[in-house]
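Something for you to look into today, if you have time. I want to see for myself how the chain folds. Leave the record below and I will have a look.
***
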Amino acid sequence: MAEKKLTNQQLLGEQGIALISLAVSGIGFVWRPTSQHDTGIDGEIEVRDTVTGAVSGLLLKVQSKAVSSFGNETADGFDYSPEARDVTYWLGHNVPVILVVSRPSTGEVYWQPVQEPSGQARSRKFCFDKRRDALNANATGRLTELVRQHSAGARGVALQRSERLVSNLLPVTKLPTRLYLAETPHRTGKDVTDALQGRQLSFEFVLKNKRVLTVRDLTDPRYEFLCDRGTVEDFPVAQWSASDDPNTQRDFVHLLNQCLRQALRTLPGRIRRNKETGAYFFPSNTERTAYSIGYQGQKKTTAREVVKVLRNKKLDHVMGFRHSAMWGQFNRYDGRWYLEVTPTYVFTGPDGTSPSRFAGEWTSGIKRLEKNQSVLGQLVMWEELLTSEVDLFVEPYPFLGFGKLLSFSTDRGIDDEAWTPPDDDVAGAAEDLPAGLFDTP
């Protein structure tokens, strides 16, 4: 009578399943092994809220492959090539399937999705990154996002982690103490601007109903050519800043925007406003070369190339320039004014001045592929520029000042890597775009 046998490969497979069970329970999700008759699928993972214990009903199917050694292994990763029929079978499922490859002798276990949330199937060779693809607590965000994107209407589960959320709101900490109002012979903003030509005077103003509203003291004789000094009135700024009247608020915001524009002109780079987009940006220098500015980042002093030369990858000629920029919008919340800062870019042509004909394409590309840390880095740069007294020898702008970005602490968060495309996807998408568009610090 033939003896019953259990092969070493079968034992290795059981050890691989045990590793998956241990890893999944370790991150707080639910592991359910399937019956031995379920060909090609070894179990399923259900996403669970690790704080409340609530199960979500969001499922992942799991195919386990336990091996004695990893193919083409390096310190950073390895390859695994399943059979074509296995991949075809996995892709036939109506829920996401992940491939888990383990090495029981070392206790290592790694995973990758068989099909990306975008619907793109992976090639037959799976290239594992040991840091990114380890089946441990760092995988919870990617696993949750994978199953959520495959399941219409699914909410997903926030991760239990301490996280600091940085908003894009700068509190306004300084306003003019008084505003001045007077009748004026000038009827348009251009008339006022023309009258100021050749004079070393700054004049932030709103022109309305034949009167001019400004932060500048109109009783000063230097401004007599702009107004009838006999009609000058002055008011506490709160009469405008705290008003609930929509027209008064609109005039005050217009005046704040004038102040912001003037304040930015005093900063390094003498920041300008782009007429086409309304964004504030670093202009090109006279040499039409790239340049950087230094600032204090969140953790250390750093620098950012605020004007960058963009070159054609094949012919190496200059296609244009990328200028770091921002949109600024004033809003009042709970009686307090804030500047909402939205980082962006302005693109100019080879002369560094005129708008680039590729601006729409380049803006769309960089916004689609730029990662969170790059956006945050630019936001922090604007924060530092607007809140720091950058030149000890220059009087700070007197009518407008800002505090640090509002931030909030939370005990729930998301995995940033689960929401951003892999580096190789970014590289492929950027292949036809000019050199230098994405390599921000």
User: Anything to note?
Assistant: The two ends are 71 Å apart (CA to CA). Confidence is low (pLDDT under 50) at residues 425-429. Residues 8-27 form the longest helix (20 residues). The first strand starts at residue 30 and ends at 33.
